[in-house]
Amino acid sequence: MRITRICSTDSYYDVRTDKNQPSFGIANSGKLKTLFTYGLPCMYTGVEMVDPRRVQRLINNNAFEAPVSQVLQTMKPFEKSITDIEFQVYKIIKGVAKLHPDKNLQQILKLITPSYSAKLKKEQRPILQQISETAKELPEDYQYRFQHFMSETEDKINEKPICLPFSSYEFKYKLDKIREDIMQNASPKAGRVMDKLVLEASRLTDETDVKTMETQQQIMKFLKIILKSSVLKKNEQLKTLINESQKRLNYERFFMPFSRKSFIYDLNNLIEPVPDKELKEKLRNLAISLPTSRESVPAYIMKFSREPSWKIAYRILWPNMASVEHIHPQSKGGVDEMRNFGGAGTRVNAERGNIDFTEQVERIPETAENSQKYVDGLIGLVKRGIFRKTGVKTDYVDEFCKTVYEESSGKVCLDSSELQEHRQKGAMLLKILGALNLQ
């Protein structure tokens, strides 16, 4: 029976394309990426990983824009890789799809938005109330600004029109995010349009005041002209961004959905000059405790109900899409070589950041067990001839085991003895064949 174990050091044996598609962003990892086609488990969670290139092909073929009944059939092979809050949302989508099979993913989420909006407000209100109560300790000269800020927040939550000052930094940031989305599935023409829009937007000055207002309004009008005469003229994200920005420049009221991230950013800016550090920390911690799409189903649904159908499907699959993991962090000198590569789901890889592998093992105690599953998966591919077919050397399995052992300070020992047995059988078979040829 094979055992993966936490052990002491003396007991170890010797062993983004121009389409901005999900990218590993790592040189020299091409061979490992080819193995992700075969459903390897994540070395941290043990969940079977999704090949990002397969998802990208589906996006390119508009597979996720079809009616939800077809989309669910497309996503069925990935179901065992959908986990956590995404799995909860996926189940809700499947339930609603039974009643509305002809609607697309975006329309399905919009159907349930009213009920989940009410649920999200129920989660948000006690925290916002705590923030308001705590803010009573702010110096008097901050009280008016804070009350205005909270009044504006209340209007956003209740979907009332508000008047916001224009921010060129925010506009450029949002335009860049939209560009990333569009380039997932862009034609060369669409790419050129986005290049024009980004170039024109770069002329927007950082400051918005009496001197710059007219020029910014002219730039926004020109952006609208470019969009109207382009292949992207029906893109809702671009139309909404430009229309809202024009209204902000003209001091007109419009509907702006509540955003947790924006709320935290704006609150932090408001209280930054406050001398009471303890009070600031208390307010920041309360703001951070607002429900996120990572932990709250209503927050997830409200966040992605405004996204196109392909992105909703992509985000459901994203957490367990395969990514190349530097076992020794690259930012801390980890090499771009196979011996330092593992396979991990995108979310757990991103959450690790650049912390040491020893700390990662402490954060996720199942790493030892699941890294063994990863090794077993690799050995299975060796036996099937996939390593030979893809040109990956079987030495990678030994190197992975050794690196994990060393980077965990000898705590994680992985068993690759099955690979050694396979090699021995192969060598014996070659010996027999050689002897037969001699006869």
Describe, in short, the structure shown.
The protein is mainly α and 439 residues long.
Proportion of β residues?
under 5%
Question: Mean pLDDT across all residues, rounded?
Answer: 90
Calculate Rg over CA atoms.
26 Å
> What class would the helix/strand composition place it in?
mainly alpha
- So what's the overall shape? globular
Give the beta-strand count. 4
How much helical structure, as a percent, in the residues?
55-70%
Sheet bearing the most strands, described?
Answer: 2 strands, antiparallel
Any key phrases for this structure?
439 residues, mainly alpha, two-stranded antiparallel sheet, 20 helices, globular, disordered N terminus
Model description:
The chain has two domains: 5-51 and 321-438, no CATH class; 131-288, no CATH class. The strands form two sheets. A two-stranded antiparallel sheet has the order 1-4. The chain has a two-stranded antiparallel sheet with strand order 2-3. The protein is globular, with a radius of gyration of 26 Å. 59% of the residues lie in helices and 3% in strands. It contains 20 helices and four strands. The chain is mainly α and 439 residues long. 30% of the residues are buried.
Q: How is this fold's topology laid out?
A:
Blueprint: E1 5-6, H1 30-35, H2 52-60, H3 68-75, H4 84-97, H5 105-134, H6 140-157, H7 168-182, H8 188-201, H9 210-228, H10 236-249, H11 260-271, H12 277-288, H13 297-304, H14 309-317, E2 322-326, E3 341-345, H15 346-352, H16 357-363, H17 367-383, H18 386-390, H19 395-407, E4 412-413, H20 417-438
Antiparallel strand pairs: 1-4, 2-3
Helix pairs in contact: 5-12, 5-13, 6-11, 7-8, 7-10, 8-9, 9-10, 11-12
